[in-house]
What does this fold into?
Amino acid sequence: MSKIQWIKSRFGIGSRSRSLFVSLLAGMMLFLASCGNAPPAEPPTYTPDVVQRLESYANDIQGMRDRMGELEQLIQDRDWIYADNFIHGPLGTLRQDMSLFNRNLLPQDQSQGRELAREVSRHLEAISLAAQQADYATATKNYREMLTDLDAFLDLLPNAT
Ligand code: ZN
It folds into this structure.
């Protein structure tokens, strides 16, 4: 006796509900089979339009990265008022651009992006505070660390293929 015949006799169900039952059963077997043999899901990848969006935000961020020498010079000159103004002026949108960039990263890259963006903001705030206190050592230390974190952040940009 086949399995289906056994089910028919065992449950004694009518032809209409029987065919429904059989197709449900077939569906269930297919589902179980696919669960057992399914290959692991492909990791998500960057689509060209997402890469394009990331490049656009990265361009804005790179533009600010290219001007960091100006901030360094202001710190070197102990020009504290302009150093602080520079952080809130020309670099004022850096945090927002980093956050927009992060939102377009794949989930597995986002935590690293958020962490680096937090670090960059933290160092900039420290430089701003150091400027208000004319604390040269703290300002230069945070400037160097901010550059390292910002360059690591820009490295998150996926290569366009
Ligand atoms: Zn840091």
